[in-house]
From TrEMBL:
Keywords: DNA-binding, Transcription, Transcription regulation. CDD domains: LuxR_C_like (cd06170). It comes from Streptomyces justiciae. SUPFAM superfamilies: C-terminal effector domain of the bipartite response regulators, CheY-like. This is Response regulator transcription factor. It holds the Pfam family GerE.
Length: 235
């Protein structure tokens, strides 16, 4: 039997896409709304079995306050956090707030569905490798502060890193395509994947995040990449 769900995310298009995919798999999605001051109240009012709550900054202080409020007023609602690759502190903060699990934004729909079923059953829903990282951090605290820039860089392919550098340099889709020797449609796809992996909603946000975390310094100058096989001008 399908699960009664709510999908709440900063990025409305991502929320609606996930909601649609879950509906196709037989679940009852009550709403797909962007977080706002009343997001927790909406979940409390609708009382789904499971709420998927998206965040782009899992380590930010107070980011999981809506989880605390939901669990206080509707303890039977299982809250699954959707976010980027988190630091162990981010996972710890999510569970401390009362979340039932943590799912990466780029997880396949099958993985999201498995997490939903676990959360509804009252089980912790988090990938083993994320838990291992959290336990490792607790048992062996790092002497150096968490390197967010390096973590974000590891999420991206070399092609996506080049796209991000070009975005930060102010290049539009046409210039990115010309500089990389690919079709504009392919360039747009690369840009959208970069935004999704970084958990941001615009090119400006991506550039700001890359600059703030030092990711651009690590990425270095734009490489001279050979054209991708099969790429050509867009018709």
């Amino acid at each position: 039997m399908g699960v009664r769900l709510m999908v709440v995310d900063d990025h409305r298009l991502l929320a609606e896409a996930l909601a649609s995919a879950l509906k196709l798999r037989g679940h009852r999605v009550l709403a797909a709304a962007a977080p706002a001051a009343g997001a927790a109240e909406l979940v409390i009012t609708r009382a789904p079995e499971v709420c998927l709550l998206g965040t782009a900054t899992p380590a930010e202080p107070g980011i999981f306050d809506p989880v605390v409020k939901i669990k206080r007023d509707r303890p039977q609602v299982a809250v699954l956090v959707l976010g980027p690759v988190p630091s162990p502190r981010g996972i710890a903060a999510a569970f401390a707030a009362g979340a039932s699990g943590y799912v990466r934004h780029d997880e396949r729909i099958e993985g999201v569905e498995r997490a939903i079923m676990k959360a509804r059953a009252g089980e912790a829903a988090v990938a083993p490798q994320l838990l291992q990282g959290a336990f490792s951090e607790l048992l062996n605290p790092a002497a150096q502060p968490d390197d967010e820039g390096q973590r974000l860089l590891q999420m991206l392919t070399p092609r996506e890193v080049e796209v991000l550098v070009r975005v930060a340099d102010g290049e539009d889709t046409r210039l990115i395509a010309a500089g990389m020797g690919i079709a504009p449609s392919t360039a747009r796809t690369h840009v959208q994947r970069v935004l999704m992996k970084l958990g941001v909603g615009s090119r400006l946000e991506a550039a700001a995040l890359a600059a703030r975390t030092g990711l651009l310094d690590r990425a270095g100058p734009v490489p001279h990449s050979p054209p991708e096989t099969g790429a050509g001008p867009e018709s």
